[in-house]
Amino acid sequence: MLIHIIREMLRKHTFKFILGGSVSALFNLFLIFVMIDKMGFNSPLLRNVANIITTELSLIFSFFIYRIWVWTGGNWKISDVLKKQLFLYHLSAGSAICTRVFIVFPILDWIGISYSLNTLVGIMFGAVINYVISDRVVFNEKNSSTNNNLFYPEGLELSLCQAEKRQSTYSVDKYIKLFSIVIPAHNEEDGISLTLEKISETLEKEAIPYEILVVNDNSGDSTEEVLKQICDHNSKIHYINNYYPNGFGFAVRCGLENYSGDAVTIVMADYSDSPENIIDYYNQLCLGYECVFGSRFIKGGKVIDYPSHKLFINRLANLFIKVLFGLDFNDTTNAFKAYHRKVIEGISPLISHHFNLTVELPLKAIVRGYSYSIIPIIWSNRKTGVSKLRIKEMGSRYLFIVLYIFLEKLLSHNDYFRKDEQFKD
What is the pTM of this model? Predict the structure, then answer.
């Protein structure tokens, strides 16, 4: 079994890339040792010279490891390798280093991540940047002399490609008798009425059978009083009080344990998610997809009044997740997604307490083999109230969930992968 796992890992570009990078790092250390301890490059000036020389030799060494072992084939013309590919690879590696030093390290330091974890994440993120550029630009066969188009990595900018859909290989009940909308609400007295009104109007207009379940997340304002009044006038809207400790993840988990529908979508209470996209989710589920993931960053998607610093961190985080898991999806961190009931049952128990649940839900569904569709959605910033997301508090929690699910994908040998048939010994 272990040999099989190793073989499967070696077939993947990402693992080969990491292994090749580790070998080149050891080669760099060996060269440093030889030049300083054996060749006498032991003064401050000479040590800097040794560092420059060994770094350059290690870059060239890693280039040929990737060229021969990871991205095989392609154009091996000397002029193309030396003048184009090797030059682009230097830019790729330089971009990775600059991203680590000038972007990732300062952000993680601002969040309050420890220096040891900061260094680890910085190295991983630098490797991701290097991998993406190498895969899409440096070693891309379409980037040869017969084709001068550059293919930029999705996630660094708004994608220009159509939303991709993964075809379902499993049968699913396409008829949804009741569609549930779960809305966590903490101190949303000013905006919850508008959100519920617009969602109800949209669903009624389309004659979709629905229920709206609002989870009052230990609100300290008059949110519960507002909900009582709304529920008295609309029998399809009801609320419960979160019986877990305060927290977005706890509130959503409470809702997912109490909804009644055949499928469910998670919607924010601040009217940032478009009600029309709820209809799009419903229609995709009726086509047979088990999950529907919206993206604000593909053609047709849109963000309105997104704070620039949050948008920047969002794009970096989603790029990291996208490459780490090899996804076609570039908006994992957004909560607004839809799931068939069998998916919620199949990815339980959920463990996230806070906003990192937004990552746990889709990644578990993907890793465990549920079919999904990706569609463009529209997001607009809240007009009332205060955002509950605190980036400095959430950084390590997001990282924990991402690595936790990545270990499941890497090491579980599909123990949790969904199966249509009963397990047979």
Answer: 0.65
pLDDT value at position 270?
92
Q: Where are the alpha helices (DSSP H) in 257-390?
A: 275-286, 308-325, 341-346, 357-367
The CATH 3.90.550.10 domain(s) of the chain lie at 179-306+324-395
Q: Per-residue pLDDT tens for 339-388?
A: 999 999 999 999 999 999 999 999 999 999 999 999 999 999 977 666 65
Task: Report which of 276, 264, 269, 272 is spatially closest to residue 193, judged by C-alpha positions.
Answer: 269
Q: Report CA 284 to chain centroid distance, whole Å.
A: 21
Contacts of 402 (CB under 8 A, 6+ apart): 320, 321, 324, 359, 363
Q: How many residues does the chain have?
A: 425
Residue 356: predicted pLDDT: 92
257 touches 349 (CB < 8 A): no
**Residue for token pair 């463009």:** 376
CATH superfamily of 179-306+324-395: Spore Coat Polysaccharide Biosynthesis Protein SpsA; Chain A (3.90.550.10)
According to DSSP, the residues that pair with 266 across neighbouring strands are 182
Q: What is the pLDDT of residue 143?
A: 41
**Which pLDDT score, from 0 to 100, does residue 195 have?**
96
| H helix and E strand count, the chain | 15, 9
CA dihedral 268, 274, 280, 285 (to 10 degrees): 0
Rounded to whole angstroms, the Cα distance separating 353 from 217 reads: 12
pLDDT of residue 1: 45
- Over residues 189-234, the pLDDT tens digits come to 999 999 999 999 999 999 999 999 999 999 999 999 999 999 999 9
Q: Quick check: 216 and 242 in contact, CB under 8 A?
A: yes
Q: Report how far apart, in Å, the C-alpha atoms of 145 and of each of 90, 139, 150, 294 are.
A: 19, 12, 12, 37
**pLDDT < 50: residue spans in the chain:** 1-2, 5-6, 9-10, 143-171, 421-425
ω before 349 within 30° of 0 (cis)? yes
- 114 exposed, middle or buried (CB, 10 Å; 0-12, 13-18, 19+)? exposed
Residues sharing a CB contact under 8 Å with residue 423, sequence separation 6 or more, in sequence order: none
